[in-house]
Amino acid sequence: MRLLLLVRAYQVYGHMKALLDPLDLEQREIPNDLDPAFYGFTKADLDREFFLGVWRMSGFLSENRPVRTLRAILTRLEQAYCGNIGYEYMHIADREQCNWLRDRIETPVPMAYNRQRREVILDRLIWSTQFENFLASKWTAAKRFGLEGGETLIPGMKEMFDRSADLGVESIVIGMSHRGRLNVLGNVVRKPLRQIFNEFSGGTRPVDEVGLYTGTGDVKYHLGTSYDRPTRGGKRIHLSLVANPSHLEAVDPVVVGKTRAKQYYSNDVDRTKNMGVLIHGDGSFAGQGVVYETLHLSALPNYTTGGTIHIVVNNQVAFTTDPKSGRSSQYCTDVAKALNAPIFHVNGDDVEAVVHVCELAAEWRQTFHTDVVVDIVCYRRFGHNEIDEPSFTQPKMYKVIQNHPSALEIYQKKLLETGQATKEDIDRIQNKVTTILNEEFLASKDYVPQKRDWLSAYWSGFKSPEQLSRIRNTGVKPEILKTVGKAIATLPDNFRAHRAVKKIFADRLKMIETGDGVDWALGEALAFATLLVEGNHVRLSGQDVERGTFSHRHAVVHDQETGVRYCPLDHVMMNQNEEMFTVSNSSLSEFGVLGFELGYSMENPNSLVIWEAQFGDFANGAQVIFDQFLSSGEAKWLRQSGLVVLLPHGYDGQGPEHSSARLERFLQMSDDNPFVIPEMEPTLRNQIQKCNWQVVNVTTPANYFHVLRRQIHRDFRKPLIVMAPKNLLRHKDCKSNLSEFDDVQGHPGFDKQGTRFKRLIKDQSGHSDLEEDIRRLVLCSGKVYYELDEKRKSTERKDVAICRVEQLCPFPYDLIQRELKRYPNAEVVWCQEEPMNMGAYSYIAPRLATAMKALDRGNSDNIKYVGRAPSAATATGFYMVHVKEQSELVENAITSDTITNPTIS
């Protein structure tokens, strides 16, 4: 029994004794559990025989030698668990998974590759090493964040991909930060070397389909690419490396989301054909919370991808921070234990060991469809970048590194000593690599970037910002609206819904039948349903989106006796694919889930992908995705996304965290020029195409319906930020007639150009094209309109006009000028609920002034502001103060003879 405890100790703690650090600097305390004396064994017991045959869990039975000496058992345990690989897997509760790994670890099949395989490994290691040496010799002062010290990553990845292809994988989505990225681009994903070298020399901007230069570009070690790569086994595998910023782990959920979308569109139900691979740094894997947020999605039904392979390039120092200052755990990979992922630590100097665990990781993923981690313990030969001086902060480590041979030198020596390769073999490969590198370098001087290359064939035919995309109507035939409306408003006869839910659906059915009083939730559901009927995939995700945070949506309802779920939007058509409409409550994550949905939206333009925040400012937790991906991804990387973000927004007295979605931040990141009126003629207008995204604050269910459908019904994609309502979800006046959704000429939603999203809604008082008696034109956005309108009615102020700016960005100059012409004698007021330093005011004011100047209506001095005073907090936490503030701003806008700017309270 004591011997079995000793065997188990090696299985649990053997990695603590493994030879993982190439520099041999790590001082680790070896647990007493690995000392035979701890169990009472002495030297006299070493040649004593023991019977292990009854204990299948040890893995030794595969040799059919149930009787062993203690010395033989210890030797085998040391070989299996304490060599250049350290295995952590005994934290996994699943016995089948543990036995599967144990068999592969303990079965004494040596990790010996034949001469042919070793030559392939050698070739790949030479390519990895020579690539870095070549860049270093040609661009001595350039930052490249090279892979020196971790060159075995490249042969490891290549063998992993070859093995994955053998096991059925057809497509791999890769995400990684800057360390070694150029090497991966050139040697794994096969980005043309001449293109990489051209980028080092300054590069030229890519051109679009009509020959115009486009985009801001990005530094070379942030760029992505895709390639159909042949494998060693004779197959082809599609590789795509996702572009990403310097926020090291921010790309993780994007990769996972893109992988999930690939699985949907290729009908990869078993999730075995499409796989995600993430390459991490040791400091960032341990330190950045989005790593856990991404891991946490791995087994959730609507987010799982059947397992992600994680590779950690563990160079044992994060920029200048030692591991003891960068994490609280023994290993940088310990966070993965929370998900029961096996972890293979491997000495990065042993290329065959790296190859072995990379292949093992591929086999694990394809067998158990869960995450797995490969931790390549290596080093960084130079500083954080090549012009950095690392000995400032790690003098002891870098004294060792200076005299440490490279992994290639170590492997070449091993092959020469064992007779597995000759010096001629090595020279032949090195000369071949050097020749190709030089040829590509010469070709780089004349390299011309190709036309934009969308990562997916689904994007073929979509327009760039320089190509005009015609405006399309978004109305739907009345008979289709009625048909789908009844389908989504009807519950099965035997379904026992909650009494309140039953009434909601009965009311919806009445709205469809009468055509009156369509509310926000039904307007949204009609947008989803009509897009589904047209063959588009719709996906809605976020915290509590199934019911809706404000108990309005009820996209999924529950039988009150059995708990069975029913989703009406799954039954819009006969034999509907159950994943065609996906609505899913997410984990309590913003950064990870928004990143996931962004990645999902990038794969195929024919999908409406939506992320909804529980409250608008909860999106603060995902700011990196907004700043680095969503607002600027097209400009930097020429990658479009039509992702929709719903951010509940509006001042209801619920305090600072439940009022503002930080509208001002999204408007500040908008790239339209406030002093130039673009071409606004409808047949020539490409204002939205040239803007980085759209920001709207919609006030009617019909307009919400059209803005969602507009996302799909055009030849380009732009992110859409929606300031979503809260109290308008049930507001008595926030209703639309069904005729506003249809495409019938003459109905309320139809204007000269058709039924479309209204960027501005004019005053609803039936004014003519010229109203000289109106003394004040109040421009506003969002739910404050209803309070202003109610105040105007109660005070019978017929000399005040109220217009709603439904699309804030890009600014609707043409419609604003139409209203300025309509009311030539009116003073111009911007009214908002938010404090003056927040909300839309700072964005609207200069653009409104530009529109006024063009009509000789004055300038910014002639724009009156009505709203809250400047403030540090977004809103008061005292309800009575909120009521007073709201009442004052509404009165100031409608009834005050003279508008005064607010004072700081």
Automatic annotation (TrEMBL):
Residues 518-731 form the Transketolase-like pyrimidine-binding domain. InterPro entries: 2oxoglutarate_DH_E1 (IPR011603), DH_E1 (IPR001017), KGD_C_sf (IPR042179), ODO-1/KGD_C (IPR031717), THDP-binding (IPR029061), Transketolase-like_Pyr-bd (IPR005475). One of its GO terms (biological process) is tricarboxylic acid cycle. Its main location: mitochondrion. GO terms for molecular function: metal ion binding; oxoglutarate dehydrogenase (succinyl-transferring) activity; thiamine pyrophosphate binding. One of its GO terms (cellular component) is oxoglutarate dehydrogenase complex. It holds the Pfam family OxoGdeHyase_C. It catalyses: N(6)-[(R)-lipoyl]-L-lysyl-[protein] + 2-oxoglutarate + H(+) = N(6)-[(R)-S(8)-succinyldihydrolipoyl]-L-lysyl-[protein] + CO2. Its EC number is 1.2.4.2. The keyword Methyltransferase does not apply. Signal peptide: none annotated. Keywords: Magnesium, Metal-binding, Mitochondrion, Oxidoreductase, Thiamine pyrophosphate, Transit peptide, Tricarboxylic acid cycle. Its cofactor is Mg(2+); thiamine diphosphate. It is found in: Mitochondrion matrix. PANTHER family: 2-OXOADIPATE DEHYDROGENASE COMPLEX COMPONENT E1 (PTHR23152:SF4), 2-OXOGLUTARATE DEHYDROGENASE (PTHR23152). Belongs to the alpha-ketoglutarate dehydrogenase family. The 2-oxoglutarate dehydrogenase complex catalyzes the overall conversion of 2-oxoglutarate to succinyl-CoA and CO(2). It contains multiple copies of three enzymatic components: 2-oxoglutarate dehydrogenase (E1), dihydrolipoamide succinyltransferase (E2) and lipoamide dehydrogenase (E3). This is 2-oxoglutarate dehydrogenase, mitochondrial. It comes from Tagetes erecta. The lineage of its organism: Eukaryota, Viridiplantae, Streptophyta, Embryophyta, Tracheophyta.
